Amino acid sequence: KPVTHSDSVVVIGLGRFGGAVAESLMRLGHEVLAIDTNAELVQKWADRLTHVVQADATDSDAMRQLGLNHIEHAVVSIGSDIEASVLTVLALEELGVPDIWAKATGTRHGLILERTGAHHVVHPEAAMGERVAHLVTGKMMDFLEFEDGFAIAKTKAPEEALEKTLSESNLRQKHGITVVGIKRRHADFIYAQADSYIEPGDILVISGPTDLVEKFAALT
Ligand code: ADP
């Protein structure tokens, strides 16, 4: 039966990446139609997703029959078979799917996907590699960079911020970053305020331009 709900998503390719996307979408309450050529994977996912179909996603007639011309969002997570990945994006584009996401295995694959009609191209390996680089030294406990050079990170409070309030340490003036929240051991996360008092061991959630966030975390 075709999936026509506006918040339904089709995930094509149930490898590690596609499987993780599909599972998270289900947890977030969306309807998920998944398509894979591999019978074993279809079997494995059958009772965990809304619909799982064994089909070749490069076949636009088959995709139309599955109702994909009515679906709002598609995630193409075919990695190793670049030809299949590109032909699938092309088929979805021809069916008029308004929001196509595709996983790229490399820069050139990504460029081809963009030219073929993918609206969003993700590079999970490159993105994760960059994130690990930020985390590996232990200066940051978490790091998230937005496209426009803006980042959020979790880091220990530096010496100069200890045993005073945020307004006293004046980190925004001195370092160009904003403390968004504070996490103290055995306590809930709290939103940072001017009169929030920082103790040794406190973890700060900070935001600001990526280079300034990186410099600030390096102080610890
Ligand atoms: P990952 O690295 O995330 O595991 P893979 O590239 O290994 O990604 O997995 C891609 C998945 O996409 C595989 O399960 C494969 O069977 C499926 N797949 C490949 N080609 C097609 C296609 N034409 N139609 C549907 N599914 C496909």
From TrEMBL:
Q: Which residues form a coiled coil?
A: none
- Give the InterPro entries listed for this entry: NAD(P)-bd_dom_sf (IPR036291), RCK_C (IPR006037), RCK_C_sf (IPR036721), RCK_N (IPR003148), Trk_Ktr_HKT_K-transport (IPR050721)
Q: Can you give the residue ranges of the RCK C-terminal domain?
A: 138-220
Record-level Gene Ontology MF annotations: monoatomic cation transmembrane transporter activity
One GO biological-process annotation of the entry reads: potassium ion transport
Q: A Pfam family this protein belongs to?
A: TrkA_C
RCK N-terminal domain residues? 6-122
> Where, by residue number, does the polypeptide cross the bilayer?
none
Which PANTHER family does this chain map to?
KTR SYSTEM POTASSIUM UPTAKE PROTEIN C (PTHR43833:SF7), POTASSIUM CHANNEL PROTEIN 2-RELATED-RELATED (PTHR43833)
* UniProt protein name: TrkA family potassium uptake protein
